[in-house]
Amino acid sequence: DKYAPDKKLKFTFGLWTVGNPGRDPFGEPTRQKPDVRQICDILGTAGAYGVNFHDNDLIPIDATPEQAAQIKSEFRKGLKDNGLVVPMATTNLFSDPVFKDGAFTSNNASIRAYAIQKTMRAMDLGAEFGAKIYVFWGGREGAESDATKNPVDAVKRFREAIDFLCEYNIEQKFGYKFAFEAKPNEPRGHMYFAVTGSYLALIPTLAHPEMCGVNPEFAHETMAGLNFVHHVAQALEMGKLFHIDLNDQEMGRFDEDFRFGSTSYKSAFFLVKMLEDYKYNGPRHFDSHAYRQSDMQDVGAFAAGSMRTYMILKEKAARWNADPEIQGLLKVINAQDPISKLTKNYSSGNAKKLLAAPLDRVELAKARLPYEQLDQLTAEILFGVR
Ligand code: GLO
Ligand code: NI
Ligand code: NI
Ligand code: NI
User: Fold this and answer.
1) Does the beta carbon of 287 sit less than 6 angstroms from any atom of ligand 1?
2) What is the distance between the alpha carbons of residues 300 and 18, in angstroms, rounded to a whole number?
3) Residue nearest to atom 4 of ligand 1 (CA)
4) Interface predicted TM-score of the whole assembly (ipTM), two decimals
C-alpha cells in the first residue's frame, strides 16, 4: 500500500485526541474514554510513529504515587508492544479551576509559581518517556475583559516563566526544544499571543531564543480567518518550526479540530507540499479528534485516515512538482532579469546602477501571469484527473 503511513514522517497523536470521549460544551461524552493501553493499541494498529501527552492525560492530577507508578508501567508496556515513541510532552495548564484566570499570566503570584512548578514536574515526566520537544499552549492565558488583566504584564510574566523553565531544562540536561502554540480565542474570549507570529516576535526577547520555536496549529489561525500556510512559512523560513499540529477547521467557526484534510483540501495540499518541499523533519502531530458521533472503531478509522490523507497529499505534491506543464508555467511566472541581482546586496555602486536602470513600468506591467491556468492544473491534480 503506497499510502501506508511512513514512520520517517513521524506521525503522532495525543493521548487526549484519540482518547477524546466526544464531550462538547453542550453535551456529555458519547463514547467511553479508552485507557492508555487501548490508545496505544489503536495507534499501533493504525501504524502511527508516536503518542504525546499532557501530564494529566497520563497521570490524573490527584493520583497517588502508587497509581502513578501503575499507569506508567502500563503505558510503557503499551508503547513497547506497539513500537511507539513519545516525541513530545506538554502541561495541562487549563483544566483545573486553579487556572481559571491563567497560569503563567495569572494575576496571582502563587498561581504563577504553581503553574511553573507543575510544568517542571511535567517536564520530568516527559523526559522519563524520552520526549525531546516540549509544547506550551496557554489555554487560559487571556481575558474576557481587559479591565481584569494587564496585557503588557502578561507578556512579561510569560517571558519570566519561560526563562525560568529554560534554565531548568539546561540544568536537568533534558535537551528539550520548547515549541509555543498560539490560538486566537477559545476557551478564553481573547487569548494572549493570538497568532504564531506573536511568538516568533517574542522568541528573540527570551534568555534562550535558540531553545525556543513554535508549534502552529491548522485550526488556530484558520479560526481567525487567516492563511495558516503563510504562518507556517514564516516559522519555517526562520528555522523555528519545531513541531506542527495538523487538523482541519472551517473559518469563523468554533474550534472544530476536524480530521486533517477533511474540509480544506487545497490548504492542506499546499501545507503538505511546503513541509515536504522544505524537508520539515519534526513530528507531524494530529491534534484533532473523531466526530462526536463516532464509536471506537470509527476512531481507528479517524487515526488511519489522518495519516493516509497526508500520504496522498504528499504524492499529489510530488506530482505537481513533476508536472511539465506546471513547471513550464512556473518558469514564465518567475522570469529572472539580470537587473534583479543588483538588489541582492547593497553597495553604493549597485545603488547607482539601480537608480540609472531603465525600468519601464508600462512594459513591466505587460508580463504574463497565467495564474488561471496554473490554478486549474492544481485543481485537476487534486481532483485526481491529472
Ligand atoms: C487546543 C490546543 C491543544 C494543544 C495541547 C498541546 O486548542 O490545540 O490541544 O495543542 O494542549 O499543548
Ligand atoms: Ni487546538
Ligand atoms: Ni482545538
Ligand atoms: Ni494544538
Assistant:
1) yes
2) 8
3) 137
4) 0.96
